[in-house]
Design a protein that fits this description.
The protein is α/β, with parallel strands linked by helices. It is about 20% helix and about 35% strand. The longest helix has 12 residues.
């Protein structure tokens, strides 16, 4: 038997609001009945993994240990789009043969948007 990812869970202050941000950013449906206490993205559509948002009274301070690494051919445009949706730019990186930008969602959860290999390959420029 193997393990599979069922959910990626975010502890947050407002589940519906944060789920709405991630729904827009990833162009995945926000599930019905989202509330400030609990919300999901992609469950009704059967998408995997499902993003789950749960309101907690006190978030653990400091950097989140698990974060999403996203990638895109048009990564610079997607970074601008994320910022326009409410993300905060944290830093730019070019290491291990990969370029990426670290951002924080509206509640401070970090995530990265990286250039797809073909978008950083000089042969494709």
């Amino acid at each position: 038997m193997t393990l599979t990812i069922g959910h990626i869970t975010f502890d947050c202050a407002d589940a519906a609001a944060l789920a709405g941000f991630w729904s827009e950013l990833l162009d995945r449906p926000l599930d019905a009945n989202a509330s400030p206490e609990f919300a999901t993205v992609g469950m009704a559509e059967g998408l995997s993994p499902v993003l789950m948002f749960i309101r907690v009274p006190d978030k653990t301070p400091g950097k989140n240990v698990i974060h999403l690494d996203l990638k895109a051919e048009d990564w610079r445009e997607q970074i601008d789009r994320a910022i326009s949706l409410g993300a905060k730019h944290i830093g730019d990186f070019d290491e291990y043969g990969v370029q990426w930008v670290t951002l924080a969602d509206p509640e401070g959860n970090l995530f990265d948007i990286a250039a797809s290999r073909s978008s950083t390959n000089p042969q494709n420029e």
